[in-house]
UniProtKB/TrEMBL annotation:
Keyword Membrane: yes
Pfam families assigned: ECF_trnsprt
Keyword tags: Membrane, Transmembrane, Transmembrane helix
InterPro entries given in the database record: ECF_trnsprt_substrate-spec
Sequence intervals crossing the membrane: 19-38, 44-62, 69-93, 105-130, 142-165, 185-208
Species assigned in the record: Bariatricus massiliensis
Protein name as annotated: ECF transporter S component
Length: 223
């Protein structure tokens, strides 16, 4: 077997392994998304979620490109969920749902996908920035906590602020809030929903990351 054949086979195996890793994380996201009251937890005015957590872990283990793909899978599950199982505010996540005179549009697609894709990108860079600043070899606990917080808050802050940008009046009407007070309402959701989500993401990312990010474990997993 010549050197070129060996290199090509190694490249092919690496691509196959990468696809398998993506498939495993994607399967976890889909299972969470379609298990009632686990992946998406209905709160009436919105849905709480823990689906960002495998996207964050995937970002840290597989890198930002694959993390972005996983974020896209998360966005797709949200798009489908809000289309076939809508709440009163689902029009902000899908153009295929109307609430009276209010309907979604291109802004719905942006809200549904862009923040979720960035969940798979931001934690990777936050983790490595914290690790570099701490000048610590091995797994950085502070980096894992920061990555978990950053991933969850990327989702919450972007989603809620994009809702305000694209659908301020419609969102206010759907929630029975005066248009002049809608941003205060949004800040309330961020505090009640987004902050606990971020704390949970930080804790779980720390617990899982301390094990999964170890060099020996990553080598056995082929990362």
């Amino acid at each position: 077997m010549n050197k070129t054949t060996t290199v090509n086979r190694g490249t092919s195996m690496a691509k196959t392994r990468g696809l398998v890793q993506l498939a495993i994380f994607s399967a976890i996201i889909v299972v969470l998304a379609y298990t009632p009251f686990i992946g998406y937890i209905p709160l009436g005015f919105t849905r709480a979620t823990i689906i960002h957590i495998p996207v964050i872990i995937g970002s840290l283990m597989l890198g930002p490109k694959k993390g972005a793909v996983l974020g896209g899978v998360f966005g797709l599950t949200s798009f489908i969920n809000n289309t076939i199982n809508p709440t009163v505010t689902s029009f902000v996540f899908t153009p295929f749902y109307n609430l009276g005179e209010y309907s979604g549009g291109i802004g719905s697609v942006i809200i549904c996908f862009l923040p979720r894709i960035l969940i798979g990108v931001v934690p990777f860079y936050v983790y490595h920035l914290i690790r570099k600043m701490s000048k610590k070899d091995g797994v950085s606990s502070a980096g894992l906590v920061a990555a978990g917080l950053a991933g969850a808050l990327t989702n919450t802050l972007l989603v809620m602020n994009l809702i305000f940008f694209f659908f301020r009046d419609a969102y206010a009407s759907a929630n029975g809030v005066a248009a002049s007070a809608v941003y205060k309402f949004i800040l309330g959701i961020i505090g009640i929903n987004g902050v606990p989500e971020a704390i949970v993401a930080a804790v779980i990312t720390l617990i899982l990351g301390k094990t999964l990010m170890r060099k020996g474990v990553q080598e056995r997993l082929g990362v």
